[in-house]
Amino acid sequence: MLIGQGFDVHRFAPERQLILGGVTIEHPLGLAAHSDGDVVIHALCDALLGAAALGDIGHHFPDNSAEFLNIDSRILLRRVIKTLQEHHLSVHNADLTIVAQAPKLASHIALMRQHLANDVQCTIQRMNVKATTTEWLGFTGRGEGIAAFAVVLLTGD
């Protein structure tokens, strides 16, 4: 068994869609990024790659590559899973935390879990997503951006 952890953060930006965990969420601001800015998936990718000692998301999908400009982060996640499979590794479970003062995310969690479980090829019972605020403290509390943390357990043959 291999354990990995990941973290990502992006600042809010106008004229962008807000996408978290593969779900488009109604909000006046999206997240600034080279890709679609999905901090949840980016943290998950880093945790998966870290558990396998395969570097990080920036190494595999550099932000100076036109290939990844505005790319759907679910595509990146599926590529990470394919890489793990080539190393005979699979996801046993994942636990993700989204840190955002706004928008409220509770109504979107079930769909995020479903998308992420499908993409990493695990059961929904082994994919946990939760959201919290920072009680108005720090950059997330001031509404400047969103952060996400991920912890994963991989198994191999």
Automatic annotation (TrEMBL):
Domain of life, per UniProt, equals: Bacteria
What is the free-text note on the cofactor?
Answer: Binds 1 divalent metal cation per subunit.
Which EC class heads this enzyme's classification?
lyase
Residues bound to 4-CDP-2-C-methyl-D-erythritol 2-phosphate: 8-10, 34-35, 56-58, 132-135, 139, 142
The UniProt entry, under CDD domains, shows: MECDP_synthase
Marked site (Transition state stabilizer) residue numbers = 34, 133
User: Which biological processes are named by the entry's GO terms?
Assistant: isopentenyl diphosphate biosynthetic process, methylerythritol 4-phosphate pathway; terpenoid biosynthetic process
Which annotated residues bind a divalent metal cation? Answer: 8, 10, 42
Q: Supply the alphabetized keyword list.
A: Isoprene biosynthesis, Lyase, Metal-binding
Q: Family per UniProt?
A: Belongs to the IspF family.
Q: Which PANTHER family match?
A: 2-C-METHYL-D-ERYTHRITOL 2,4-CYCLODIPHOSPHATE SYNTHASE, CHLOROPLASTIC
User: Quaternary arrangement and interactors, per the entry?
Assistant: Homotrimer.
- This chain's protein is named 2-C-methyl-D-erythritol 2,4-cyclodiphosphate synthase
> What organism does the UniProt record list as the source?
Thiospirillum jenense
The uppermost taxa in this organism's lineage are: Bacteria, Pseudomonadati, Pseudomonadota, Gammaproteobacteria, Chromatiales
Its gene? Answer: ispF
